[in-house]
Every structure is written in structure tokens, then in C-alpha cells.
């Protein structure tokens, strides 16, 4: 059986749009209709004509698609595929901090649970966070849950007062400054491209900082010939297929997201057959979580 052919037939027959993040394995990216970063995928989820969406990513991505499109069936490849950072703050902590300030906006990285979004004012992704936070009238910004992205933003916005939380991405936190220095010694000609979920130490060594799709765009358009990649290794698939003549090096051996790598071609085939693993949300929670996501889409334009 040719799995790719079978998946193609099934998705057409069952009217399914397949959305995949750049961190899932290359074979899964190849059968997807849309591949991109978190912002692009949340936008495409509102634009695809099909009534069913199969999400190859982690839970918060499928949840966001469902929050924005209650009328669609959003199906996950693997219901266990999750992002640990999405659960690193709770609603009570948010409310307690909010109560201490008269003038505060709760800015929630999209890598968060629906419950956390429901207690926030606006969502952001790594590609639009600067633009959106700059447009907010509030001086005080509670940035949750990612401490590293928040810290990076605060260095670019000295006029705002940031309050941080201690959330982090385990994959990006494990990309250490020493590893980057070692990679630079081994490949002195290479430019370092880093995701803003890396620590500020690592970001201080980067030539370019951006979301997954921004990193791919930068390397593709750049005149440079070699790059050290400080993000999850799934981006190498697109980087290498678009840039056969350029060289890409990882910083260490651990740049893999467990949740993202739970999305396999075999599971895509099985779930297209069964149409199980539907994302279901309590309607009251969905409506509360919709407001900050909708605000993100308005302010990102
Ligand atoms: P992007 O929005 O850059 O694709 O990031 C998603 C993510 O989970 C990074 O760890
Ligand atoms: Fe979450 Fe990190 Fe995986 Fe992104 S790479 S989904 S932030 S655990």
C-alpha cells in the first residue's frame, strides 16, 4: 500500500484539509495541504473551505483551530500530542497578578491551554508578538507563559513594564549558550538563526531571531551559505528542500519536540479512516478563549 496515495484519496473523499506545523516529521509535512508557523496555521484554520481539519501538531494548535471555528470538525492525529509549556501557568495566578495593577494587559503566547487563553486579553505568536504588544495602550504587560519570549520582547520595548512568568519550552531551554559557542567554533562561517523561545543568552549570539517560518524565509532569501539552527529540528526538512546548495547545522542532539514527533504518517492514515480524535471544547470556555485569539488576528493585520 502506498500510504501517501491512500492519504490523498481519503482526505479528498472525506473533505479534510490537513494542516501541519514545521516541527512534525518531513513525511507528514509532505502530505499536508498547508504547512507553516503557529500564526499561519491559526489563520488558515479560519480560511480552508473543507468542513474537516486534520491537525498535525500539538493540542494547543488544534484547540485554537476549534476555538476560532466551532462549526468545523477539528481532528488531532494523536490526542496525546501536547506542549508542556501550554500548562505552565494557571488561571488563579493570572487573576492574582492582574488584581495588583490598574493598567495591565495579559498577553498570552498561543502555546497555552484554552483555560489560560480564557483568562487573557490578547494572544500572540512569535511572529506577531512585537507588533501586537506595541499596539496595546497598557504600560504593564503580564506576558505568559513563556519567560524567554517575554524577556526578548521586553528588550525591544523599554517603554513597557513587563511582568514575567517562569514558563519555558523544554526543547529551546535545552539549547545552551555553550552549545551554540561550540557550534560557532566548528562552523565559523555559519550564521546563527534562533527562535525567540531560546534563552536571552542564546539570542545574544544569534544573527537572526524569528518564528519557524521567518527562520526558513531568512535562510532561503539570504546570500549566506551555511547556518546554525537554534530551534526544533523539524524545520530542517523545508530548509534543506528549498536550499539544496546551503548547509544547515543543529546546535545539539536534543532539538526534538516529543509532542510534535508523535504525528506520524501511519497515524494520519488511521485517523483519516476512523475520523476519531475530535477536538471538543466546553462552549462557555470556547467563547471566552475566542476573544483573545480574535483580537490577535485583528491586531496582527
Ligand atoms: P512558531 O510560531 O515559530 O511556529 O512556533 C511554534 C512553537 O511551538 C515553537 O516552539
Ligand atoms: Fe511546545 Fe516547545 Fe514543542 Fe513548541 S517545541 S510545541 S513550545 S514543547
From TrEMBL:
Record field: transmembrane: none
This protein's UniProt keywords: 4Fe-4S, Iron, Iron-sulfur, Metal-binding, Pyridine nucleotide biosynthesis, Transferase
Record InterPro entries: NadA (IPR003473), NadA_sf (IPR036094)
SUPFAM superfamilies xrefs: NadA-like
Pathway assignment: Cofactor biosynthesis; NAD(+) biosynthesis; quinolinate from iminoaspartate: step 1/1
EC number(s) per entry: 2.5.1.72
Cofactors demanded by this protein: [4Fe-4S] cluster
GO molecular function, one term: 4 iron, 4 sulfur cluster binding
Alphabetical list of PANTHER family matching this protein: QUINOLINATE SYNTHASE, CHLOROPLASTIC, QUINOLINATE SYNTHETASE A
Protein name: Quinolinate synthase
Organism: Anaerotignum neopropionicum
Originating gene: nadA
Amino acid at each position: 500500500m502506498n500510504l501517501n496515495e491512500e492519504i490523498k484519496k481519503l482526505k479528498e473523499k472525506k473533505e479534510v484539509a490537513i494542516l501541519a506545523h514545521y516541527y512534525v516529521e518531513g513525511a507528514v509535512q509532505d502530505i499536508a495541504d498547508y504547512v507553516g508557523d503557529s500564526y499561519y496555521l491559526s489563520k488558515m484554520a479560519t480560511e480552508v473551505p473543507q468542513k474537516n481539519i486534520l491537525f498535525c501538531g500539538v493540542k494547543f494548535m488544534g484547540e485554537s483551530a476549534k476555538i476560532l471555528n466551532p462549526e468545523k470538525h477539528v481532528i488531532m492525529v494523536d490526542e496525546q500530542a501536547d506542549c508542556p509549556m501550554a500548562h505552565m501557568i494557571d488561571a488563579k495566578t493570572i487573576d492574582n497578578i492582574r488584581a495588583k495593577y490598574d493598567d495591565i494587559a495579559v498577553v498570552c503566547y498561543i502555546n497555552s491551554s484554552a483555560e489560560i487563553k480564557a483568562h487573557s486579553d490578547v494572544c500572540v505568536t512569535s511572529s506577531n508578538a512585537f507588533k501586537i504588544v506595541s499596539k496595546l495602550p497598557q504600560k504593564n504587560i503580564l506576558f505568559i507563559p513563556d519567560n524567554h519570549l517575554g524577556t526578548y520582547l521586553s528588550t525591544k520595548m523599554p517603554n513597557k513594564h513587563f511582568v514575567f512568568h517562569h514558563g519555558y519550552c523544554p526543547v529551546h531551554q535545552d539549547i545552551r549558550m555553550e552549545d551554540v559557542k561550540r557550534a560557532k567554533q566548528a562552523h565559523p562561517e555559519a550564521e546563527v538563526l534562533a527562535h525567540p523561545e531560546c534563552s536571552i543568552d542564546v539570542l545574544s549570539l544569534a544573527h537572526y531571531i524569528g518564528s519557524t517560518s521567518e527562520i526558513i524565509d531568512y535562510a532561503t532569501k539570504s546570500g549566506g551559505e551555511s547556518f546554525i539552527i537554534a530551534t526544533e529540528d523539524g524545520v530542517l526538512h523545508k530548509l534543506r528542500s528549498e536550499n539544496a546548495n546551503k548547509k544547515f547545522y543543529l546546535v545539539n542532539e536534543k532539538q526534538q519536540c516529543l509532542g510534535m514527533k508523535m504525528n506520524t504518517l501511519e497515524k494520519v492514515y488511521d485517523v483519516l479512516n476512523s475520523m476519531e480524535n475530535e477536538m471538543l471544547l466546553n462552549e462557555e470556555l470556547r467563547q471566552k478563549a475566542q476573544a483573545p485569539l480574535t483580537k490577535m488576528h485583528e491586531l496582527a493585520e
